[in-house]
């Protein structure tokens, strides 16, 4: 039952991270309070700061990679 649970966590985490629209509608984009990487990327792109937006996107990508790698590593270890 743990492997399906970890797979669900991975899928849910990916869905939550990719929900830019919901983040903007619910929490807004208030610096220091509700700004997250996804909304900050949208803000910087809108302002024309593409270098900053790309850097934020790379951080988000790295975070996603590390979380998915870690959960996959846990899954592989549980099978052995």
In short:
This protein has 80 residues and is mainly alpha-helical. 81% of the residues lie in helices and 0% in strands. The radius of gyration is 15 Å and the shape is elongated.
Q: What is this structure's SSE topology?
A:
Blueprint: H1 2-18, H2 20-26, H3 37-47, H4 50-79
Please characterize this protein's 3D structure:
By secondary structure, this protein is mainly α. The chain has a domain at 19-68. 81% of the residues lie in helices and 0% in strands. The protein is built from 4 helices and no strands. It has helices at residues 2-18, 20-26, 37-47, 50-79. Helix 1 (2-18) runs antiparallel to helix 4 (50-79) and helix 3 (37-47) packs antiparallel against helix 4. The longest helix has 30 residues, at 50-79. The chain is elongated, with a radius of gyration of 15 Å. The model has no long low-confidence stretch (mean pLDDT 82).
Report the end-to-end length measured between terminal Cα atoms: 15 Å
Structural class, by secondary structure, is mainly alpha
SSE string, helix = H, strand = E?
HHHH
Secondary structure: number of strands: 0
**Contiguous runs where pLDDT drops below 50 for at least 5 residues:** none
Biggest sheet record: none
**What is the tally of helical segments?**
4
The value of Rg in angstroms is 15 Å
Average per-residue pLDDT, rounded, comes to 82
Strand content: under 5%
Q: Bin the helical content.
A: over 70%
Q: What would the principal axes of the Cα set say about the shape?
A: elongated
